[in-house]
Structures are given as C-alpha cells and as structure tokens.
C-alpha cells in the first residue's frame, strides 16, 4: 500500500487516526488487506463527498448497511466518480434489469470501464438471451455479474468460446464492440 498509494499516509496524525477509527467503526477487519484500501478510499475524499456518494447509492435503493457491505468487499466502489457510479447503475439496473444485489455481491463492477468492459460483455449476454441460450434468467444474471470480473482471457475462454458452436458470430460481435470502445 505504501508503495502504491503513499499519499494515503501523508496526512496529519490526527486526520489519519480519525480515518482509521472511522474504517474500524465500519467493521472492516484490520487484518485484511481491504482494511488498508478502505483507509485509502476514506482518506481520498472529504466527508461531504463520502456523504454525497452514500446518498447517491441510497437513491438507487441501497440501504446504508448494503453500502457498507459493498465498501467492505471492495472499497473502490466509493472511489468512482458520482457520474461513473450513476452511469454504471443506470445501465445495469435500467437497461440490463439487474437487481442491486448482483452489484452489492461484486462491487468491483463499479470500478470497471462501462465502455470497455461492462457494455461489451452485457451485449454478449443480451445476444445469448435473444438466442435462447441463457436458461434461467435469475441464475444467468448472477453468472453475468461474475463474467464482468473475469480477466479478458478467461471471459473469452469461459463465455465466448463456450457458446462458439451455438453462436459462432459471438466473437465477432464482441470484438466489434471492443473496437468501438477502443476508438478503432
């Protein structure tokens, strides 16, 4: 942490003590690496910014406990800009029909690029759904939230290649959306 985010530790002793106290009160286990990332996240923003982000998540139907659970799982979910949080939640909830529980389960999703990861992979899902290859929608939505966490290599192997026989054009569709996202 010190090597990657040294500014986290460049603060007054009183401010650092307050931040550590606040993170500890949230119930995050100090023996876990996430504790340090939570300190970094909490330290990186003012209380007013933190409160605005809490309000934003609450506008999307999250309780304070759910916000803290997501923060504990991945502190980065509070470091994303309010615009990014809004765009990702709007897309996943309103366009894709996701329940908030999928995002709370994997809050790292809020850290991903909406253009370069979330939209292209969700379009793969929509395409498979249109082809009738998704099976039970609830199980598949949860699986899809996991798809977003896969590395590019694993996503291509476990998703795109898996459906290659039933949807041979899937790879081209995915590559097309990735090229658009990358400005090619």
H/I helix tally: 10
Q: β content, as a range?
A: under 5%
Morphology: elongated
Radius of gyration: 19 Å
Low-confidence blocks of residues: none
Secondary structural class: mainly alpha
- Whole-number average pLDDT? 85
DSSP strand tally: 0
Q: What is the first-to-last residue Cα distance? A: 35 Å
Task: Summarize the amount of helix as a percent range.
Answer: 55-70%
The profile of the biggest β sheet is: none
Oligomer: single chain
Order of helices and strands: HHHHHHHHHH
Structural account:
It is elongated, with a radius of gyration of 19 Å. It is built from ten helices and no strands. The protein is an all-alpha fold and 184 residues long. Helix 1 packs across helix 2 (33-43) and helix 7 (114-130) packs antiparallel against helix 10.
What would you say about this model in short?
The chain has 184 residues and is mostly helical.
Secondary structure: elements and pairs:
Blueprint: H1 13-25, H2 33-43, H3 47-59, H4 64-73, H5 82-95, H6 100-105, H7 114-130, H8 137-147, H9 152-160, H10 170-181
Tags for this entry?
single chain; 10 helices
């Amino acid at each position: 942490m010190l090597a990657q985010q040294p500014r986290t530790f460049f603060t007054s002793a009183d401010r650092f003590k307050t931040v550590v106290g606040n993170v500890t009160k949230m119930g995050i286990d100090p023996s876990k690496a996430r504790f340090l990332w939570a300190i970094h996240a909490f330290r990186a923003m003012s209380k007013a910014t933190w409160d605005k982000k809490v309000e934003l998540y609450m506008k999307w139907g999250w309780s304070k406990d759910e916000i803290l659970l997501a923060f504990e799982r991945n502190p980065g979910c509070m470091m994303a800009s309010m615009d990014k949080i809004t765009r990702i939640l709007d897309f996943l909830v309103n366009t894709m029909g996701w329940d908030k529980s999928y995002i709370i389960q994997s809050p790292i999703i809020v850290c991903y690029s909406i253009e370069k990861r979330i939209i292209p992979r969700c379009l793969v899902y929509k395409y498979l759904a249109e082809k009738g290859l998704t099976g039970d929608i609830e199980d598949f939505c949860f699986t899809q939230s996991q798809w977003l966490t896969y590395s590019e290599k694993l996503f291509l192997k476990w998703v795109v290649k898996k459906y290659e026989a039933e949807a041979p054009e899937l790879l081209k569709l995915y590559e097309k959306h990735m090229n658009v996202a990358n400005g090619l």
